[in-house]
TrEMBL record:
InterPro entries: ChyE-like (IPR044992), Class_I_gatase-like (IPR029062), GATASE (IPR017926). Pfam families: GATase. Residues 47-194 form the Glutamine amidotransferase domain. This is Glutamine amidotransferase. One of its GO terms (molecular function) is transferase activity. SUPFAM superfamilies: Class I glutamine amidotransferase-like (SSF52317). GO terms for cellular component: cytosol. Keywords: Glutamine amidotransferase, Transferase. It comes from Microbacterium enclense.
Amino acid sequence: MDRPFVLLATRAEDLPADEEYALFLRFTGLPPERLRRIRLERDPMPEIDLDEVAGILVGGSPFNASDPWEKKSAVQRRVEAEMAELVDRVVARDAPFLGACYGVGTLGTHLGAPIDGTYAEPISVVDVTLTEAGRVDPLLGRLPDRFPAFVGHKEAISRLPATATLLASSPTCPVQMFRVGRNVYATQFHPELDLAGIVTRIHAYASYGYFAPDELDLTLAAVRRTPVTATGGILRAFVERYAD
């Protein structure tokens, strides 16, 4: 039997959590039985045998790696410890891994990269440009050199270590996608989102400080400024490359 992929999720709200899973299914092309969802905000991470899974996907998260330790909840602290142990094993094995947005925090922490608010981006659509390495990367070969993508994050990597390869950048956030080794990836933008999905998140996280209370309409307008159609291809390429 073909090995499943795993989606590690941390959203406590059922509507955006379920919609996130549905979007990963849609853009990867996987049936539910081949994409195992683990909700880390609810349950401890089970043992993940890297030989028994085809690849690991990480969804976005309301958690911020750069938050002061004393402000992190017990759940966030547990999740960060579990993710750190897993990422250590993933990088050591160069196992297939793709983290969307929260993946930058988890993989960046492993690298010792500075993660702070220098290049935070409001919820919006930005133009992302591939680097020379990005243009020849197996996950990005079908994308144009420049493409719009959904973003919205309070922290980012401010300087990428030399041990990682920069694949994509934008004027407002220099590290939009990078790779470690051959098979470990992270994106700052959200390849799993479509317009309906990000509108759901805007309403679900309206009180989380991503925008001011009177900026709801402006934020909704910002994600509608231009169609986002190419980024989901990254997830499909990931599955096509690593599926049994």
